[in-house]
Structures are given as C-alpha cells and as structure tokens.
Amino acid sequence: MSETELLTGQLLFEFRTIKAMVNIYCKAHHPMKPSHDVCEQCREFLSYANTRLDRCPYGQDKPTCNKCPVHCYKPHMKQKAREIMIFAGPRMLLPHPIMAIKHLLAERKPAPGLPPEGASNRHKRKRQMS
Q1: Is 4 in contact with 118 (CB distance < 8 Å)?
Q2: Which of 6, 24, 97, 125 has its CA 20 to 30 A from that of 90?
C-alpha cells in the first residue's frame, strides 16, 4: 500500500518530510544503493514511519515527534529517527527549503495534551469503511 493511499493532509506532509530526510541520510551513509532509491534498511524505516503516522493518536493534529507526549516509536527506531533527523535536518534547507521551514515552524507549537479518543488516521478510515 503506498503512502498516498493511507495518509492525507498533515500526516502526508510529515511522511514526505521524513522521506526527504531519509533520502539525504541514505545518500550520505549508504552509497552502495541505486542512485534513485534508498537502501533496504532505510526503506524498512520509511515503512515503519508510515505505519506509525497512520496510527498516530493525534491524527491530523499531530505535533512534531520531539514535542509529542506519546512516544509511539520502538526505542531502536526512535534512535534511528533521531540519528536521521540530526544529520539530515540542517541539510534540508537547500534541497527542500519550504518543507524545512514548515517543519521548523511546526516544532515551535506548544506540546498538546492527551489525544482525543479515535482521532488517528487508522480509526477514521475504519469508521468510513463501516
């Protein structure tokens, strides 16, 4: 299932941002991959990030992950995400200036309280199917 089938709105923007960061990271750290794609390890991380975004309890009102009170990534994946973002974040400004600025502005928003029940993208999709 592709990213456009599951995610919409702010969640899709978040996924495209992390995908751009992974591309920058993978290009620098895994040079043996095909030039148009990311390596298998990074592809697995993107698939995991896509699933986590789909199941985010905040849904479309999702805060940036470093401001979120609910930590939905497994510890090793959270560390991988942090590693990718620390490396790729400053390098986003040239290839993706609008995306980088929007992400920086989103990080300035205050941390929200607990998420409302059933607000995740996955819950909404299930309600639409029933």
Answers
A1: no
A2: 6
Contacts of 92 (CB under 8 A, 6+ apart): 20, 21, 24, 99, 100, 103
Sign of the Cα pseudo-torsion (39, 36, 90, 106, in order)? negative
Q: What is the pLDDT of residue 1?
A: 45
Determine whether 2 is exposed, middle or buried from the number of CB atoms within 10 Å of its CB (0-12, 13-18, 19+): exposed
Question: How far, in Å, CA of 19 to CA of 46, rounded?
Answer: 7
- The Cα–Cα gap between 7 and 10 comes to 8
CB contact burial 75-93 (16+ within 10 A = b; e otherwise): eeeeebbeebbeebbebbe
Q: Is the pTM of this model over 0.90?
A: no
Rounded CA gap, 73 and 52, in Å?
Answer: 7
- Please, are residues 39 and 26 in contact by the beta-carbon 8 Å criterion? yes
Q: What is the pLDDT of residues 22-73, one digit of tens each?
A: 999 998 888 776 666 788 899 999 999 999 999 888 888 888 877 888 888 9
